[in-house]
């Protein structure tokens, strides 16, 4: 079992190599390097702890795909942090992010085909999506304004609210629409980061993604309220 937990560190090591390779294409600042390495270590620690707690006996092909996505997200993080102090290759940033988004459609299929579906894998995939959206939101602040951070912070605001209101931490039923919205937000934020669109269109694309995300989270919150007898009065009038 210990060897299974150590697998996550293989991708952390691979991520350091990826960061080094990135500098040959788009040099990273010291802050960018630090952000990338911290991201890699944090990801490896979290998945190792999750695997240990779940008692997983194998890492699985689907988790390997998600770990690869996580590694690429750390490269994106390093590039975005670097972009605040020096120029980066936007083409390279867009390319790496596009591959990362594309892989999001792969890990779930691999899990289903190999019988490797698990709660840990699903959570790993969700958190990878959330962090990528946060990083892209940060990248887009200088293009459309700080309001775009609402997209990246919403998942974490929901998590914080769950500590204040425990009923928000109940498991919600699977909805494919939730995955569609997450993918749409990632694509929208990537389009803005590419700087290929006129400013008004960037704002429209970001605002549309934000509305979709609010609808998705709102639907989950309403479902949780309805399932909690003590909170039904918030939805149903007496």
Order of helices and strands: HHHHHHHH
* Name of the level-1 CATH class: Mainly Alpha
Q: How many structural domains?
A: 1
- The low-confidence runs, each spanning 5 or more residues with pLDDT under 50, are 234-238
Helix content: over 70%
Main beta sheet strand tally, sense and closure? none
Look at the helices and sheets and give the structural class.
Answer: mainly alpha
Q: With helices defined by DSSP (H or I, 4 residues minimum), what is the helix count?
A: 8
- Please report which band the strand proportion falls in: under 5%, 5-15%, 15-25%, 25-35%, 35-45% or over 45%: under 5%
Query: What CATH architecture label applies?
Result: Up-down Bundle
Rg calc: 19 Å
Overall average pLDDT = 87
User: Distance between termini?
Assistant: 53 Å
Q: How many β-strand runs?
A: 0
CATH topology: Four Helix Bundle (Hemerythrin (Met), subunit A)
- General shape: globular
Outline of this structure?
The protein has 238 residues and is mainly alpha-helical.
